[in-house]
Amino acid sequence: xxxxxPSFESLDKIYDPTAVPKQEKRxxxxxxxxxxxxxxxxxxxxxSPGRVNLIGEHIDYCGFGxxxxxxxxxxxxxxxxxxxxxxxxxxxxNDKKYPxxxxxxxxxxxxxxxxxxxxxxxxxxxxxxxxMLEKFRLDKPKGLFLMVDGTVPAGGGLSSSAAFVCASAxxxxxxxxxxxxxxxxxxxxxxxxxxxGVNSGGMDQSASVLSEKDFALHVEFxxxxxxxPVPLPVTSPKLAFVIANTLVTADKFVxxxxxxxxxxxxxxxxxxxxxxxxxxxxxxxxxxxYDLYYQDSSLNEVERFSDLLAKAEQHYPKDNTEGxxxxxxxxxKMLDIPVKxxxxxxxxxxxxxxxxxxxxxxxxxxxxxxxxxIEFRKTCENSKDDSTLKALGNLMNASQESCDKMFMCSxxxxxxxxxxxxxxxxxxxxxxxxxxxxxxxxxxxxxNVPKLIEVLKNEFYRKTYxxxxxxxxxxxxxxxxxxxxxxxYTGF
Length: 492
Ligand code: GLA
Known about the structure:
Elements: E1 7-8, H1 20-38, E2 44-55, E3 67-82, E4 87-92, E5 101-104, H2 122-136, E6 143-150, H3 160-175, H4 182-193, H5 203-210, E7 215-220, E8 226-231, E9 239-245, H6 252-255, H7 260-277, H8 286-293, H9 301-315, H10 328-335, H11 339-346, H12 359-381, H13 387-405, H14 412-423, E10 428-432, E11 439-445, H15 449-464, H16 470-476, E12 477-480, E13 487-489
Parallel strand pairs: 1-13, 4-6
Antiparallel strand pairs: 2-3, 2-13, 3-6, 4-5, 7-8, 9-11, 9-12, 10-11
Helix pairs in contact: 2-3, 2-4, 3-4, 3-5, 4-5, 7-8, 7-12, 9-12, 12-13, 14-15
């Protein structure tokens, strides 16, 4: 069993020292609101953060490793329990946007009903609640009084949903005095979040729970979930990451059928196709193809990726749609699987809408991106001089190019922000998270952060959103340090 979820008495174990005074105020305010609304004292406080993905986009669900880090923005839940009933009372400090909700425990088998057809904030809490109570199968879980405060922008690509699901699951565990390891919490949260109807991978929950303060995190999923803290290179001047939210809302839930869920399906189909033409048994993911095909190979990791990329190029038939990909009928012929079976296998549990499946383009992105993650980690670990910044930046820029052209998950605003940043001291700029809007991440140096932020405000935000307020601007651009993952806070 891996390490338990940590309990911290002091906020400086969680946040960068510069952020502690602000956070202290925020915790106090949330506790005061809890006491006002419920007229009782809190018994516990838990938090789980959002994340920024430094590199490795849309490859977690293909089985390949990714490299995110936890950020300061997070979800805090203050709570207390009652033995007399099993009701959950859920309130949010932002009650205009997220009105209070109540629901009851529906028994060991069902736990709670989640209506995945609706975009409803309490669904994310229910995911964490259901995941935990399905695991522990309590006869009578405690009734709960909960107050939530989230600072991860919703739909901003910084994983607000995973932060909320992980914090919720941790609140349920803490309230019922159960114990759980960090790895178990992560694994439960990964599966639980799929109850809202998005077939997401495991990067966000892993980063939210398993990150360590001051480190990025290399997350691998195969053969089992494994994480390693990655030190960020020490450069002079010091490196810094700036996150800029494009403010194009990219709610995975809303756009999933044409975007996220479709990409998951395309990569599964691509894996089946490569396995078939390489005479391997049928598999689910491109990582399985990679592992099986090169099990006895003398090529190193990165050479394997370029070799497999070349094989893919060589074996794909030319599509008849001017690069738009293959119709379902064509995919059916290529895979030798009837259309009906493809629909049942890939297009039923999670809704998918498309006319074409772009299998070669997706393969090119996934394999090249997986290779870049390995190079990024190596570059961080072997950093010797200031050329490191350039090397990391080049990998991030190549990732963005591939996300845009091959995986088609960028958008004009993301491309624009990245271009502006690169002209003003960013070594590497890319989208972070699912894309189609949401946030971008930029690698720069600490001394350049104020200038970069100013330029982004003038060249992007004020031009794109002429009515934007100073407050909205400050919220959209974040200079962040790697923070700790999920934790129980006992210092209140
Ligand atoms: C979302 C998903 C993650 C991952 C990213 C894209 O954030 O939740 O699992 O697939 O998109 O890299």
